[in-house]
Each structure stands twice: as C-alpha cells, then as structure tokens.
Design a protein that fits this description.
single chain; 367 residues; alpha/beta; Rossmann fold; Hypothetical protein af1432; 6-stranded parallel β-sheet; 6 strands
C-alpha cells in the first residue's frame, strides 16, 4: 500500500491543507497520514498539542483516505526532524511505499533541510506547487521530486490566526470559538457583552451563505466584525476619537457624515476592520458598511450580514421563520427580512425615512 506522509504545524489546519492531501491521494493513491508537529521549525510557539490534534481530527474525519498520527506530538523532543518521522513509518509499514508531501515553497528550500538527501533516499518526495512560487528545477531534479498537478491555494495559517482569512472546515471554526483560540480572545476583549451577539451573527451568516451557494468564510468574517464600531461613543469622547471622526467625515467622499447616531457605528466598523484586523476585501468591508442602514442594489454578502444582524436568535424574539426564508432563497428572504425590520422588529427607532441609505434600500426593494 502507498502511504503519503503529510507533516506540518497545522496551526491551524485549513482547507488548503485538505486540498493538497486530496490531490495527492487522487494522483498517487493510498492513504494520506497527517503528522502534526509540536512547533514549526520556522516559529517558536504553537497552540497546545491537545487543540492541534483535535482540530486535525475534526478536519479529516469525513475522509476515508485520511488518518492522523501523533508520532511527533508525543515525541520526547519538541522538534522532530522529518527523517526520523519517515523512518518511523518505514518501520511501521515495512512492505509499503512511503511518500512525503510538501508544498512548493518548501521544495525550493529543501536543500537546506536537515538530512535532505536521506529523506529523498527513503521516501518519494511529492511537491504540490504554489502559483506564487516558481519551483526550483535544481531541487526537483536533485531530489527526484514528483510534481503533482494543481496549485496550492492562497490559504496561510498566519492569516487565519490574525482573522484576515478563515478558509477552514466549519467544525474547526466551531472548535476555535469553543476553546477561545487564535483570534477569539481579541474579539472577546473588543466586544465585551456584545460578543455573544456577533458570534451568533457570524455563524448565522456562515450558514445562510453556505445554503445559498456563496462563500461562507467571507460571510463569517463580516458577521463577526460588523459591530466593531459599537464600542465608540463619539459624542462623549470627541477628543479621544479624532481619527475616527475624520474617517467618518471624509471617507467615501463624506457621504456618511450625516448618519443618525444609531448608524454611525457601521462606518466606524470599516475603520476598525482595516486598522485592527487588516481587512482589505471590499465585499467584507461593504457588508460592515451597510449592515445597519441597508442600501440600494446590495450584493449577496451585504444582504446576508444585514439580515443576520436583524434576525439573530440572541435578540430574544422568534425569528425562525425569517431565518428559514433566508436559508431557502437569499433574495426573497432578504426582502422578507427587510419588510419585517421596517414594519415590526424595531418600530421605536422609526427607521423608515431616517437616512438616505435606508430610504434607497426601501425604494429599491419594497416599492
């Protein structure tokens, strides 16, 4: 049988890793064995071993051709050189062909690996290329590497840890939330008492996007960040928030400077999404920008975050029918939620006619 060893920090494991492993399994055949390391040779710390192991388990549980080995996680040394991992599997599976899967960036620096020639002697090196990395022909030839078809995705674990991207399996997303890993402590500190609301909106946004065939990860990020501006009270601390006030009055050609007080936070949310979470994706930023007021001709992510915020189950009323409407048909469901929001959900705010963006939204979708 063929055994494909796939080592790495997996901190956290993401869909790019899954894509690599699936491609290798399809093209080579056999079993892909995920071998998480305690730490990466390129960094000094990682999440606790128990968390790393469980996240990998959750990510691969539905794939029959995948398995997990804790050989490196339970090893007496903090860092285990790849040659020792390979020899472990050679001893465990003496009659099997051993492969070792790496990415294109690692292929180019493979000559710098400890015992690189021995690794290539005892295992067949498989390389999954990256579109942003030109493979070193010298290394490919020297180490007799097999270059697989396909390209690595742009996923990077560091971007996930910073919450710039979140392209990871949903069970792993839930685990990160439940155990307060990576980006969650920062979000908890930022939101305080509002954390449960934004977490609920993020997960609802994910499910609505998934059900309607859109990118659930982008919707999740926008849902989690939509209320970043809520912590700021400009009228009480104008001197403290000079940069925020300048952004409010000048960004987008100043078209948001006359918003009613309850809607100002949607613009400040964009400011903080850029400044504190380094979000550059215009779709995510616009979803934050219009989540309170709405706007004319809204795209899929803007509709999702607007609706998820209004029908969040944490708000304390039965929104199940509205949620179901969004799950079944995004466009029709959005109109249903918009009408409910204008007519029933929060009449005390007198939303109708309160600002030009809500007026545009009503005129575009309800008249």
């Amino acid at each position: 049988m063929k055994r494909i060893i796939f080592g790495g920090a997996f901190d956290p494991i993401h869909n790019g890793h899954i894509n690599m492993a699936l491609s290798a399994a399809k093209q080579i055949g056999g079993e892909v064995i995920f071998v998480p390391s305690k730490v990466s040779v390129w960094k000094t710390k990682s999440v606790e071993i128990k968390h790393k192991k469980r996240m990998v388990e959750l990510a691969i549980k539905d794939f029959d051709c995948f398995s997990l080995s804790d050989f490196e996680l339970t090893h007496k040394d903090n860092f285990v050189y790849s040659i020792f991992t390979i020899k472990h599997f050679l001893e465990k599976y003496p009659d099997d062909k051993i492969f070792y899967l790496i990415g294109g960036d690692q292929a180019n620096k493979f000559h710098l690996w400890k015992y690189c020639d021995d690794i290539a002697k005892f295992a067949q090196i498989l390389v999954f290329p990256r579109k942003d990395v030109k493979l070193s022909k010298k290394n490919v030839d020297r180490f007799n590497m097999i270059v697989l078809d396909g390209e690595e995705r742009s996923d990077a674990s560091v971007n996930i840890r910073d919450f710039k991207e979140i392209d990871i399996p949903y069970p792993v997303i839930q685990y990160i939330e439940e155990h307060s890993l990576y980006y969650i402590p920062k979000l908890k500190e930022w939101y305080g008492d509002r954390y449960n609301h934004v977490r609920s909106v993020a997960n609802l946004s994910y499910q609505i996007a998934k059900n309607n065939g859109f990118n659930p990860q982008k919707a999740y990020i926008a849902g989690f960040l939509h209320d970043l501006g809520k912590k700021v009270h400009l009228e009480k601390n104008e001197s403290e928030y000079k940069d925020e006030i300048k952004f409010l009055n000048t960004a987008y050609n100043g078209q948001f400077k006359n918003l009613p007080p309850y809607a100002v936070h949607q613009v400040l949310g964009v400011y903080y999404a850029k400044k504190e979470f380094y979000i550059e994706d215009p779709k995510i930023l616009n979803a934050i920008l219009y989540h309170c007021t709405g706007n004319e001709n809204m795209n899929w992510i803007e509709k999702i975050v607007y609706a998820a915020d209004k029908i969040d189950p944490c708000r304390g009323y039965d929104s199940s029918k509205l949620i179901q409407a969004m799950m079944e048909d995004l466009d029709k469901g959005f109109v249903t939620v918009l009408k409910a929001n204008i007519d029933y959900i929060n009449p005390k705010m007198k939303i109708t006619g309160s600002n030009e963006f809500t007026n545009k939204c009503i005129d575009y979708y309800l008249k």
